[in-house]
């Protein structure tokens, strides 16, 4: 077991403490108008340029986002230099749009919060240098944000959730199970030993050429798989969930991707088509991959729930499981997790799908 790194890296540690001191120093003065603390959040860790203005009570005052999904679908995956350029092209406009929607003047902001890790270095760099320039111009405090901590804590915007709770973060770049004991206090229980589930779905969707499918051409790989799976038969073929003998809470998705690739090649031979053409059984393959992934995620999460309850790290009844990240917007995965939480006297909470994928609100 590992303790997840605290939010700030060495470079940012002193300034983060100063930021907290600054934020705590706001007092209510009777007789004067009380202004909520207002934070501008900026996110550029991967392929979304996002910004939002949120006040301290969780009101979203303004939001804007530019998704690069369509461009990256065409290049068959994220090319970091392309992502960097797109962030550069859009960040000024997106921050301006979020501020305009909020009707907050930049000088009224209390602080600027920006994702500093983890993510693609070139993408993170754009958000960071833009923010630091703004911080310098406006003389505002800077709050460095850990992308995964932001995903984990987003639920507190929509639901009243007390610590401790269990969090499952499943996205395109990450896969982890952690016990959240405080705002910056995470106990890592399990992680992916190879790729993340969203990455696996993106790769399968690419191998199935779903970008050429008329119903899926603008969808991310994961969303395309979810969409097609509704029309497919998950019993069409059988794949064993990975790591079924491993007595821990880790995940693995590379094996599932490779087995699926082999099935696709076999089907292409049977149907007499080339790679790049749509298989008639694409929906069945999507349904099987989605089901196997969901089974694996549920089994590892079940182990984490049992572990935490045995050690009294979570309450025996009504313990909270929060599922977040892009893959947690998948309704099949959510339903599977709901069956698990019902069976273990836990409660499943998921942010609404638009707050599961990357956004500026979670950073603010
Ligand atoms: O959290 P996110 O927006 O970015 C990362 O931090 O990775 O997650 C993006 C990932 C992509 O891999 C995408 O294919 C996947 O989440 N995703 C989905 C769905 N919507 C997005 N996976 C499964 N079902 C969905 N509906
Ligand atoms: Zn994310």
TrEMBL record:
GO terms for molecular function: metal ion binding; tRNA N(6)-L-threonylcarbamoyladenine synthase activity. One of its GO terms (biological process) is tRNA threonylcarbamoyladenosine modification. One of its GO terms (cellular component) is mitochondrion. It is found in: Mitochondrion. Residues 59-364 form the Gcp-like domain. CDD domains: ASKHA_NBD_OSGEPL1_QRI7_euk (cd24134). SUPFAM superfamilies: Actin-like ATPase domain. It holds the Pfam family TsaD. Required for the formation of a threonylcarbamoyl group on adenosine at position 37 (t(6)A37) in mitochondrial tRNAs that read codons beginning with adenine. Probably involved in the transfer of the threonylcarbamoyl moiety of threonylcarbamoyl-AMP (TC-AMP) to the N6 group of A37. Involved in mitochondrial genome maintenance. This is N(6)-L-threonylcarbamoyladenine synthase. Transmembrane segments: none annotated. Binds 1 divalent metal cation per subunit. Belongs to the KAE1 / TsaD family. The lineage of its organism: Eukaryota, Metazoa, Chordata, Craniata, Vertebrata.
């Amino acid at each position: 077991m590992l303790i997840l790194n605290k939010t700030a890296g060495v470079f940012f540690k002193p300034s983060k403490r100063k930021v907290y001191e600054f934020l705590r120093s706001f007092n209510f003065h009777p007789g004067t108008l009380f202004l909520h603390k207002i934070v501008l959040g900026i996110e550029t860790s991967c392929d979304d340029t996002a910004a939002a203005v949120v006040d301290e009570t969780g009101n979203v005052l303004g939001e804007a986002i530019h998704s690069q999904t369509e461009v990256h679908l065409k290049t068959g995956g994220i090319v970091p230099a392309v992502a960097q350029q797109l962030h550069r092209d859009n960040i000024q406009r997106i921050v301006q749009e979020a501020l305009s929607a909020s009707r907050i003047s930049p000088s009224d902001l209390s602080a600027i919060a920006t994702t500093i890790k983890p993510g693609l270095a070139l993408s993170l760099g754009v958000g960071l240098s833009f923010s630091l320039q703004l911080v310098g111009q406006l003389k505002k405090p800077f709050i460095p944000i850990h992308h995964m901590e932001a995903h984990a804590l987003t639920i507190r915007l929509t639901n009243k959730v007390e610590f401790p709770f269990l969090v499952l973060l499943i996205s395109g770049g990450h896969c982890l199970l952690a016990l959240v004991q405080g705002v910056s206090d995470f106990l890592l229980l399990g992680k992916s030993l190879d790729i993340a589930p969203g990455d696996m779905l993106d790769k399968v969707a690419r191998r199935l050429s779903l970008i050429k499918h008329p119903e899926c051409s603008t969808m991310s790989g994961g969303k395309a798989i979810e969409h097609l799976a509704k029309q497919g038969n998950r019993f069409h073929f059988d794949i064993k969930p990975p790591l079924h003998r491993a007595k821990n809470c880790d995940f693995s998705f590379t094996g599932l991707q490779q087995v699926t690739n082999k099935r696709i090649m076999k089907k292409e031979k049977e149907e007499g088509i080339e790679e790049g053409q749509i298989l008639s059984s694409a929906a069945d393959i999507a349904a099987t991959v989605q089901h196997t992934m969901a089974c694996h995620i549920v089994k590892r999460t079940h182990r984490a729930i049992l572990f935490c309850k045995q050690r009294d790290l979570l309450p025996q009844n009504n313990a909270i499981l929060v599922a977040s990240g892009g893959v947690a917007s998948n309704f099949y995965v959510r339903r599977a997790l709901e069956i698990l939480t019902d069976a273990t006297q836990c409660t499943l909470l998921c942010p609404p799908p638009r707050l599961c994928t990357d956004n500026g609100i979670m950073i603010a």
